[in-house]
Amino acid sequence: MRTQLSWMVVLACAAAICQFGMAAEKPAENQPIRSRELVELLNKGNELFLSGRSCYADGKNETGLAKMKDAAQAFIAALKLAPDDEVALNGLGSACLFLNLPDAALKCFTALIERETESKVKAILLGRRAAAYAQLGNREEAFKDLNEAEKLDPESTTIKELKAAIEERLAEK
Prior knowledge:
Layout: H1 2-16, H2 36-57, H3 61-81, H4 86-98, H5 102-115, H6 119-135, H7 139-152, H8 157-171
C-alpha cells in the first residue's frame, strides 16, 4: 500500500504539471492551423485525460485506467493526422505515465524537449520525463532531468514537489 501511495504522489505531482499545452484550439506559433477533426480528437483526449486523472484522485483506479487508455487512443489517432502535434505528444506522454508505460512516455517527452526553446516549458517537460525515468527505476536519469528543470525554473514549487516525491519513491526500491 505504501508503494502504491507514493506512486500516486509522483503521478499527482506530474499531473499537476500536465496542463501545459492542453488547449487544442490554439496551436503553437510554429504549427499550422489544426483541422476540425484533429481539434476534436485533441479535445476528446484532453477530456478523457482530465476525467481519468480525477477518477484516480477519487480512488476509482479501474475507471481512471479505462479513461486513460481511451485518452491515449485519442492522442494516437491525433498523431496519425499530425505526427508532430505538440498537444497530442504531450497528452499521449502524460497518459502513458498514468498507464505505467514509461518507455512510450519517454519518447513523447524527449521529442518535445528536443524542440522546446522556452525554459519554463522545457522545465515542465523535463519533470514529466523524470517521472517516466522514475517509473523505470532509473534514478540517475530522473535526477539529471530534475536538476536541469530546477536550473531552468528555480522558483517552480511543482518541480521541487516532484523531486521530493520521486526521491521517496526511488528510496523504497
